[in-house]
Amino acid sequence: MRRVLGLAGVRRAMDGVVAAPSIAENQACHHRLFQTALFGTTATNNSLSARSHWFWCKRIAGDRRATRASITGTMLFSVAAAALVEEVRAKEPVQSELMPQDVVIYQFEACPFCNKVKAFLDYYDIPYKVVEVNPLSKKELKWSEYKKVPIVVVDGEQLVDSSEIINKLKEKINPDGAIGSDVKDDEEKKWRSWVDCYLVHLLSPNIYRTSSEALESFEYITTKGNFSFTERISAKYAGAAIMYFISKKLKKKYNISDERTALYEAAETWVDALNGRDFLGGTKPNLADLAVFGVLKPIRYLKSGRDMVEHTRIGDWYSRMESAVGESSRIQA
């Protein structure tokens, strides 16, 4: 009986590991996002540098002045290009008087919606503390009537629903609302909705596609999540088995015939939307860029994510996002 109850508890926990959308998100999507266990990764930030490859100057014979001029020009070009790259990749500055003083995010490390919020906080370099919630007991949320993650408390104000959290945080740090044209705003909204209503549904069928991938997923979940030793052992094997079978039902629910193909097509769709730009926002990421990056971050270095980068064009954009978002602005609680 204890084992049956334990497996039921793991099943309930796995249902809650991904943050469910709020009522507003449900109305926008016309269906509830199935809560599944995803897992985050810490992306390695590869700083970009501009290197000149103009070695033709070595072939210039006799004229030392021409050689020196060529080398000088090359060096100046490299410095200017590097400065330009740094300017494009730099985090967005927030005026000190508008910077929130105390930000706490209650999360599951594995949750894509939590990672979406953290991508925003990291990009704007807003310091935040993390409270990792136990997915079984949720004792860390006893103080709140809202029992789903992410929950963000900003200077004492509780915010819920990942997209609304980001909207309100953006208003706080940019109260004048200096935004681009209506066309750009509509484009950003369209792709943010695409993330919440479509892209997220492709993750679970992919990360639990096979028994080995399911175990890989839960290896990360149980290592990074807030589990006791007993819960960790139970969740790793029982959870992997449960989610393997649930993922098959999710395929039918969302009419996914081939999960990998659907993931690849989604990645290509996003790259097509960039239309040759570094980011959907142009030279800098906008909220849609941050949303796609945050949701994909949990799977990027798992087999499904590695396959996605290998078989689609999304890798370059993802690398640019890693550089743009930069180091985490998380601080110790």
Task: Characterize the structure shown.
By secondary structure, the protein is mainly alpha-helical. 54% of the residues lie in helices and 5% in strands. Strands 2-1-3-4 form a four-stranded mixed β-sheet, with helices on one face. The longest helix is centred in the N-terminal third of the chain and has 26 residues, at 64-89. Mean pLDDT is 79; it is low at 1-89.
- Give the SSE order as H and E letters: HHHEHEEEHHHHHHHHH
Q: How would you describe the shape? A: globular
With strands numbered from the N-terminus, the spatial order across the biggest sheet is 2-1-3-4
Tell me roughly what share of residues is in helical segments. 40-55%
The biggest sheet amounts to: 4 strands, mixed
The termini sit apart by 38 Å
Q: How many separate helices? A: 13
Q: Tell me the β content.
A: 5-15%
- Unreliable spans are 1-89
Number of separate strands: 4
Protein structure class = mainly alpha
Task: State the main characteristics.
mainly alpha; 333 residues
Blueprint of the fold:
Layout: H1 2-16, H2 23-29, H3 64-89, E1 103-107, H4 112-123, E2 129-132, E3 151-154, E4 157-160, H5 162-173, H6 182-197, H7 203-207, H8 211-224, H9 229-253, H10 259-274, H11 287-296, H12 303-311, H13 314-325
Parallel strand pairs: 1-2
Antiparallel strand pairs: 1-3, 3-4
Helix pairs in contact: 1-9, 4-5, 4-11, 6-11, 8-9, 10-12
